[in-house]
Amino acid sequence: LHAQAQGAPVETVPNHLVWAILTTIFCCLPFGIVAIVFAAQVNSLFQAGNYDKAVEYSKKARTWSLVSCISLLIPMSLYIIIIIIIMIFGFAASSM
Amino acid sequence: MAAIHLKYHGVHYSLAPVRLKRMGVIGGVLLLVMALTVLFWFEPAESGIFPPCIFHALTGWHCPGCGSARGLHQLLHGHVLVAFGLNPLIVLSLPFLSYGLISRILFLGTNRRLPSVFIPARWIWALLGVIILYWILRNIPIYPFSLLAP
Predict the structure, then answer these.
(1) What integer is the mean pLDDT of B25-32?
(2) CA B138 to chain centre
(3) Tens of pLDDT along B115-130?
(4) Closest Cβ opposite residue A25 in set B65, B101, B121
(5) Residues of B whose CB is below 8 A from A27
(6) Distances (CA, A) of B37 to A87, B15, B41, B51, B67
(7) For B60, left (φ over 0), alpha (ψ -120 to 50), or beta?
(8) What's the confidence (pLDDT) of residue A4?
(9) CA atoms of B67 and B133, how far apart (whole Å)
């Protein structure tokens, strides 16, 4: 979407639906739902020819997928770090 | 994305955006392959190395993704029906999700696009309804709905 003339039809506006669904299904938290709502709005605005607004909602859809993803990644990485620490201590204890 | 400049032992290095992007794509694909390999070798229900679902741990209810790790493990071993029993929504949405991911990886890696599918807004709203309904129904412990639970 570079240098579009005002009001000129654009080829496509990404709605980031795949990320929205992935984060909704895999992240177990409701932020992905927000992303799907924005993704749907991207396509309805695009169908209505409101390209500027579609681009705005496209960015929102991406942001919420990202929020959803981070809300999973932070506790998951903490969990993995704790598992690794337990494994190291377990190994050290068993070899003493 | 701007280029990144580094100074190491008095020598300046700069990473061009194209290079950074390619490294990101390769890193992402490697992570995905690693995750699938771990998922192939370890049975999520028995191994205990997989993190629990946060929603399930907090509320005791199933989220739309509960059973997906076990389901994908079964799917990687070719047991489609077992996977379907654990999480039908994941199995059904997998073709669409894989297509989207593969076309994204291809585009980032080679600048070529697979034909993109425009999904009418109405379908996306319907999908949202299906996910929320699925979320509610799989938590009802009565016969036809209990089939949806993992």
Answers:
(1) 90
(2) 20
(3) 888 888 999 999 999 9
(4) B65
(5) 65
(6) 20, 31, 6, 16, 18
(7) left
(8) 44
(9) 17
Query: pLDDT for A47-86, tens place per residue?
Result: 898 999 999 999 999 999 999 989 888 888 888 888 888 8
Start-to-end CA span in chain B (Å): 42
> To the nearest whole angstrom, how far is the Cα of B9 from the nearest Cα of chain A?
32
What is the average pLDDT score of chain A? 83
Beta partners for residue A35, in sequence order: none
Whether residue B64 and residue A29 make contact (CB cut-off 8 A), yes or no, is no
Residue B85 identity: G
Q: Which residues does B64 contact at the CB level (< 8 Å), separation at least 6?
A: A24, A25, A28, B89, B131, B134, B135, B138
Strand partners, B86: none
